[in-house]
């Protein structure tokens, strides 16, 4: 052997000391060990003749079982990522912990019939992220892309929930599903366009990718996560809902044999639903416009609708008509008007939900308070301010009202010449013609003496320059009454335009 037996023995002695020390304190690691180096050197410098060389069995010197050194399998610590989902680290985020300082609730779950109501009801109580102020100016690229994707899809959900109040649940669900799938598509496109580690679900395609995103989502029920309403952030990507891709199961009702040969009305693909539903819940602030502008709000007739496929629209139209009828009765009272209109509104909402089942999303609420709040929040005109302004009347309005004037509000002199000569003209020329005809008519009526009606004779007593203006007031009074009748006649309109 080239090495000295003394050195071997010293090495064994050091191991034994380390083992006993570790066993004593049950600790495995590096420790400071002291020994007499001079003594070891002296032993090494002794003549080899004094230390005979021979093979030594280490097992005779120590028992390996007495050493506390042993190997064992150690599992890595379990990390609960909570609502942050599966981590995906990029070049700038190795190590993980800095990401936890800027949490993003990503991804969102697939919309279903079970969570659709919560999607619409709690939309302003789920997180939105102001990218520039929430994150540092550099780094966190994938988290920023996730936050932007969440902002976009929440904005699109808002379009689906409030963009068209006439949709049934299946149409709203179809819209929300399209928005969610676009959210997945646009995020994966953006995530794969940069040199960063691709989000795990984006490695899949088709339905596997969609299912992966849905499985990663933590808030599958779209519960409210913020106590106070959050500020909406506009989407950076346009979303156009294509209703034609939604499949709607329609069952044609059985018709009597005599009725079978009648042709069904064909609904043009260009026809749009035109109805203000649901009406907002009455409040003290809205009472003036609710009662004062009632004649300016439309009513609806349902005879124009096809026989099948639009039963839901007919129910909405009838509900609006009944609510407006109740408002008319309540507004005539001198006391308790607010409580009266609120009762009429809530009764009709309950009636609508009892007949419409769960096809309208708000009807799925078990609590009446939640149901009423949902209907009010989905109303396109919750404060009754979006009523059509009455048309400004002028002498030109005779062209639209002269028949009603002749039948119901005669002025005592013929208007046929006025209508025949002025109404065919363009708008600008018609105004000039109307003024000229009134002046001619005034002179003619006043020159006829006692054959003029009493109202005209009163005008003829005025100075000549004021006579045309007086006659014009007589005509405009009749035009105003006729226009009111015309508005009532056309107040009922088809909810399908």
From TrEMBL:
<dbReference type="InterPro" id="IPR008605">
    <property type="entry name" value="ECM1"/>
</dbReference>
<feature type="region of interest" description="Disordered">
    <location>
        <begin position="257"/>
        <end position="279"/>
    </location>
</feature>
<keyword id="KW-0964">Secreted</keyword>
<dbReference type="GO" id="GO:0005615">
    <property type="term" value="C:extracellular space"/>
</dbReference>
<keyword id="KW-0732">Signal</keyword>
<protein>
    <submittedName>
        <fullName>Extracellular matrix protein 1b</fullName>
    </submittedName>
</protein>
<keyword id="KW-0677">Repeat</keyword>
<dbReference type="Pfam" id="PF05782">
    <property type="entry name" value="ECM1"/>
</dbReference>
<dbReference type="GO" id="GO:0030500">
    <property type="term" value="P:regulation of bone mineralization"/>
</dbReference>
<dbReference type="InterPro" id="IPR020858">
    <property type="entry name" value="Serum_albumin-like"/>
</dbReference>
<dbReference type="GO" id="GO:0007165">
    <property type="term" value="P:signal transduction"/>
</dbReference>
<feature type="signal peptide">
    <location>
        <begin position="1"/>
        <end position="22"/>
    </location>
</feature>
